[in-house]
Design goal:
Blueprint: E1 7-10, E2 21-26, E3 29-34, E4 40-44, H1 45-51, E5 52-57
Antiparallel strand pairs: 1-2, 1-5, 2-3, 3-4
The chain binds zinc ion.
Length: about 60
């Protein structure tokens, strides 16, 4: 399960071609930040669950 601060890969890469996102907020909505260009996207949790591909790094590991 993903958590705040984890780095995740999404089913589609960002427009900047990177596909590494940091989870910066968790709640009803989940906010992720592209680790390459800093772009922030907010998604309802249900949509995020559909769009996440895998966790690349757990926070603190
Ligand atoms: Zn980006």
């Amino acid at each position: 399960m993903y958590d705040l601060g984890d780095i995740v890969e999404m089913r589609k890469p960002h427009a900047c071609q990177a596909n590494r996102w940091e989870i910066i907020r968790m709640g009803m909505d989940i906010k992720i930040k592209c680790t390459k260009c800093g772009h922030i996207v907010m998604l309802p949790r249900r949509e995020f669950n559909k769009k996440i591909k895998k966790i690349l790094e757990k926070k603190g590991e």
